[in-house]
Known about the structure:
The chain has one domain (2-107): Cytochrome Bc1 Complex, Chain D, domain 2, CATH 1.10.760. The longest helix has 38 residues, at 2-39. It is mostly helical. The chain has helices at residues 2-39, 63-66, 69-78, 95-107. Helix 1 (2-39) crosses helix 4 and helix 3 (69-78) packs antiparallel against helix 4.
Amino acid sequence: MNSLLRILSCLFMAANATITATDRAFSQSSQGVALVQEHCAMCHATGKVGSSPHQSAPPFRRLGNSYDLDKLQEALERGTILPSHPDMPLFKMDRRTAREIMNYIRSIQE
């Protein structure tokens, strides 16, 4: 009986950790969505479907095909993203903001 309680306790803790990690990932993804909608959606397609409003702006769901996403996150943090079209502003953001945006972008890659 004692070992059954230990097993059930371990299963409960594992399930709780999984739910917490999922909630945290969803929260970060939601924050990333809000940030890209606010700062990027006027030019880029920011979802899993659709065309970019600005003809030269790549859809975010395809960025992983052309860029190393880890290096893209570093570039966001340093403010060294080279504009891919003349209307693109330079961005520099803190580590947390760059991570949230990149977590979202990673979640929608084709």
